[in-house]
Amino acid sequence: MTTQEAKQILIAHRPWSEAGDDPEVQEALALCRTDTGLAEWFAEHCARQTAVRTKFQGITPPAGLQQQIVSEYRASVNAAKLRRRLVAVAACLVIGIAGLFIIQSNRSPVREDLSFNGYRNRMARTALRAYGMDVETNDLAAVQAHLRAGQAPTDYSTSVALTQAPVVGGGVLSWQSKPVAMVCYQTGKPLPVGMKSDLILFVIEKQNVRRGEEVPEAQDIRKVSEWFTASWRAGDKIYLLAALDEVELRKRLQ
Fold first, then answer.
1. Are residues 144 and 234 in the same domain?
2. Largest CA distance in the chain
3. What is the pLDDT of residue 137?
């Protein structure tokens, strides 16, 4: 997981809430312990959220507001009926909270799918999220130099059709603490708002994906979320090509 990915995940985190069983949140928090810059950013984020919360908690309602609400309500609803309804609502709330507590207590911990299917889903979510590329350039050599510096695979092979697509950048992602090469292209078609690439190649060493034998040598095309993906094995690498358009995906595999 890159620093930018961690920020996108932690931006919704609140310091007074629990991280829960979300493996991505746990991984982002773990990265904070080793990435000084990310840790400083996260500390500032938490401080801002805490300050805003404190401001809201310090707001005092106007004097007499409660009495006004009660008096107006009593004027339209019979006091006896009101009490019965409040008791019924309170009972429902107690039962509901107790039920939720029992469900949470019996729920098994959420475990991330470490198979290739889990890897494919994670990469598709990464592509769908409005992430920032580590390097934004149309120079493939510069992208590969960045991948090499991040120990991500660079000795991969691509189809002729894919090499004809303009490169727009790339980055080094992480899967179970192992580097994944991400190379971003554009097909030339109009891009959705906030998207910088509609054709993305992910490459990882086969040994770094558990049960990598699930990946066929022939190209396996499946739709994952909004993306059409093609995955295959070649040598010691596992390839995943994602595109927003299935026709474009098949074209770039030739």
1. yes
2. 79
3. 92
Number of domains comprising the chain: 3
CA distance 173 to 6: 11
Contacts of 128 (CB under 8 A, 6+ apart): 225, 226, 227
Tokens 């773990």 -> residue: 30
Enclosing H/E stretch for 99: helix 79-106
Is the per-residue pLDDT at 108 higher than 60?
A: no
Residue 153 belongs to some domain of the structure: yes
Q: Which residues contact 110 (CB under 8 A, 6 or more apart)?
A: 21, 22, 23
- Amino acid 67 reads Q
Residues 72, 52 share a domain = no
CA distances from 39 to 20, 42, 129, 198 (A): 19, 5, 22, 31
Range of the domain at 78: 65-106
Residue 111 lies in a domain: no
Q: Considering only CA atoms, give the Rg of the chain.
A: 25
Q: Are strands 237-243 and 178-185 parallel, antiparallel or unpaired?
A: unpaired
User: What's the whole-model pTM score?
Assistant: 0.56
pLDDT in tens, 151-199: 999 999 999 999 999 999 999 998 888 999 999 999 999 988 878 889 9
Residues 128 and 248 in one domain: yes
Segment 19-29, tens digit of pLDDT: 656 788 888 88
The average pLDDT across 99-127 equals 70
- On whether residue 229 sits in a domain, the answer given is yes
